[in-house]
Write a sequence for this structure.
C-alpha cells in the first residue's frame, strides 16, 4: 500500500519527539549473547491498523506481514520483535535507529528507494475503488467532482491527489484506512480508494451487501516490501535470503492461502 514518505517524514518528527508513545522507543536490535551477533533480535515497526496485514488482537500484533516476516526470519536465522508504531513518522524510526525493519504493507516505489532500502517483493497489490451500493462509482474518471476518502500518505492518496489536485477540498484524508471506509459507510464521502487487500477485508467484515468494489484499468500493480535503513545491506540480505527460502519451500504459499490471497 501505502505511502508518501516525504509527507510522513515531516509529520513524523513531532511523533518521534514524543518518544513514539509506548512502542519501545530507543530500542533497536539486541543480541542474547553479549553482542557477537548470534540470536540477534531485530525490532520491527508496524502500524497495526491495517488488517489483514497488521492489526491488534488484544495486546498481540498479528497479520499477514507478521506471518511472512516471522517465517522469513526463522528461515534466515534471525529473530524479530514487533512494535506497534504510528504510521506518521514510521520511516524516521529507521533513520533514528529506533526500529530495524518496517513491516507495514509498504509499496516499493522508485521515490522511496532514494531514501530507504527494500527487501525483495513479497506481495502484489493494487488500488481499489469502493462505493455504496445504489451509488456505484467504478472508474477513476467517475470520481471527478466527488468526495473521496483516503488514508493520508498512501498510494491511494497519491492516485486521488494526482487526479483532483493536492489542495482539492473533495479529498478527505484519514490517519488509517478503516476510518476512511467508515466515513464512506456513514455517508460522508461518495467513495474511498485504498489497497485491495484492506478494502476487501473491511467490506467482508462490515456489510458486504452495502458496498461495491472495482479496480480501474489505469491502476498499476504494486508490490510490498520490508523496509530497512538506507545502506543496511547486511539486514536486507538476511531478509531476502529468508524470503527466498519460504518462496521455495512453499511456506509463503501457505501463508497466502491462510489469508485468502492465493490465486
Amino acid at each position: 500500500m501505502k505511502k508518501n514518505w516525504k509527507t510522513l517524514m515531516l509529520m513524523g518528527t513531532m511523533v518521534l519527539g514524543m518518544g513514539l508513545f509506548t512502542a519501545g522507543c530507543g530500542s533497536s536490535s539486541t543480541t542474547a549473547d553479549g553482542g557477537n551477533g548470534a540470536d540477534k533480535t531485530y525490532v520491527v515497526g508496524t502500524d497495526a491498523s491495517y488488517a489483514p496485514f497488521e492489526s491488534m488482537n488484544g495486546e498481540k500484533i498479528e497479520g499477514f506481514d507478521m506471518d511472512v516476516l516471522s517465517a522469513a526470519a526463522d528461515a534466515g536465522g534471525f529473530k524479530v520483535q514487533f512494535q506497534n508504531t504510528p504510521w506518521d513518522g514510521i520511516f524516521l524510526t529507521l533513520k533514528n535507529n529506533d526500529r530495524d525493519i518496517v513491516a507495514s504493507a509498504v509499496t516499493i516505489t522508485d521515490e522511496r528507494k532514494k531514501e530507504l532500502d527494500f527487501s525483495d517483493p513479497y506481495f502484489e497489490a493494487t488500488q481499489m475503488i469502493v462505493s455504496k451500493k445504489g451509488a456505484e462509482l467504478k472508474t477513476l474518471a467517475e470520481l471527478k467532482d466527488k468526495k473521496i476518502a483516503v488514508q493520508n500518505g498512501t498510494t491511494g492518496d497519491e492516485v486521488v491527489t494526482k487526479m483532483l489536485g493536492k489542495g482539492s477540498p473533495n479529498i478527505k484524508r484519514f490517519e488509517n484506512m478503516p476510518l476512511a471506509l467508515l466515513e464512506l459507510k456513514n455517508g460522508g464521502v461518495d467513495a474511498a480508494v485504498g489497497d485491495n487487500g484492506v478494502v476487501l477485508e473491511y467490506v467482508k467484515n462490515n456489510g458486504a451487501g452495502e458496498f461495491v468494489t472495482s479496480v480501474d484499468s489505469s491502476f498499476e500493480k504494486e508490490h510490498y516490501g520490508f523496509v530497512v535503513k538506507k545502506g543496511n545491506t547486511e539486514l536486507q540480505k538476511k531478509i531476502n535470503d529468508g524470503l527466498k527460502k519460504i518462496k521455495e519451500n512453499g511456506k509463503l504459499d501457505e501463508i497466502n492461502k491462510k489469508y485468502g490471497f492465493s490465486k
Summary: The first helix runs from residue 5 to 17. The radius of gyration is 18 Å. The domain at 5-124+223-258 is CATH 3.40.190.10 (D-Maltodextrin-Binding Protein; domain 2). DSSP finds nine helices and 15 strands in the chain.
